[in-house]
Amino acid sequence: MRSLLGAGASVCASVLVLGAASAAPAASPPLPARMADTGGGTQLITAVAAGTSATTGTLTWWSLRDGQWVKAGSAGARFGAKGLVEGTARRQNTSTTPTGLYDLPFAFGIKAAPTGTSYKYLPVHARSWWCEDNASKSYNRWTEPRPADCRASESERLASYETQYAHAMVIGFNYHRPVRQRGAGIFLHVNGRGATAGCVSVPGSAMQAILKWASAGKKPHIAIGTTGGSTAITRY
User: Fold this and answer.
1) Cβ–Cβ under 8 Å, residues 29 and 23
2) Beta strand 97-103 with 84-86: parallel, antiparallel or unpaired?
3) For residue 22, how many other CB atoms are within 10 A of its CB?
4) What pLDDT shows up at residue 106?
5) Theoretical Cys-Cys bridge with 49: which of 30, 54, 165, 217, CB 3.0 to 4.6 Å?
6) pLDDT tens, 91-124?
7) Strand partners for 169
8) What are 173-207's pLDDT values in tens digits?
9) Strands 187-190 and 168-170, how do they pair?
10) Residue 26: pLDDT band by 50, 70, 90 thresholds?
11) How far is CA 75 from the centre of its chain?
């Protein structure tokens, strides 16, 4: 009886394994295919954190080929030191990264653009500033030189950030119709020592790869969000 029972158990186990294999769920569609909007182009960058309190996550860049989103590259990402927050509710100087879907107006850098870069790329000079002064007419804009109404204490001299701004792209958060006090100078840039002041950062090699991959004609956008909740990246 002992050996007969053992044989029967083995047969049942085999049937269960075969059944489980045949019932395996289909692979989940790629992230861009599950999003509400991808910007209308054929290139997309996704920056995903586990939750709004996270300061790290994953950045992936995608290309739409023959109607299918294909991963072009991926890297670890860093977010604001105070995590992430819904872009429309963000406040300036809170060290939070704004969630949402944004365009990428142009790239810039202290170093020359990587060979193969076709995206609009502005070289950083000693007099290149990003104005973050809420009282200035140049709020949330590249200025060269810094205008008189834009206080240096409220702005960034880009050349001062040799590591972070070696290569960077402007994220179109609060850019086209700036709302005062919402925030300025949100970029995709090279990692510094730790979490950012509200930007998204990646290793230098990833930043260079993104610049060589990006094509203005393909209308790349960046979507920033969390894996779930009210700031889920699939909402954008």
Assistant:
1) no
2) parallel
3) 7
4) 98
5) 54
6) 999 999 999 999 999 999 999 999 999 999 999 9
7) 107, 188
8) 999 999 999 999 999 999 999 999 999 999 999 99
9) antiparallel
10) confident
11) 10
Q: What is the DSSP string of the chain?
A: -HHHHHHHHHHHHHHHHHHHHHTPPPPPPPGGGGSS---SSSEEEEEEESSTT-SEEEEEEEEEETTEEEEEEEEEEE-BTTBEEEGGG--TTS--EEEEEEE---EEESSPPPTT--S-EEEP-TT-EEE--TTSTTTTEEESS--TTS-GGGSEEGGG-TTGGGSEEE--TTTSSPPTTT----EEEE--SSSBSS-EEE-HHHHHHHHHH--GGG--EEEEEESSGGGBGGG-
Q: What is the Cα gyration radius of the chain?
A: 23
Other beta carbons within 10 Å of 114: 16
204: left (phi over 0), alpha (psi -120 to 50) or beta: alpha
CA distances from 108 to 57, 183, 221 (A): 24, 19, 16
Residues 6+ positions from 41 with CB-CB distance below 8 Å: 64, 218, 219, 220, 221
Query: What token pair was written down for 98?
Result: 């704004």
Is residue 23's pLDDT more than 80? no
Amino acid of residue 219: K
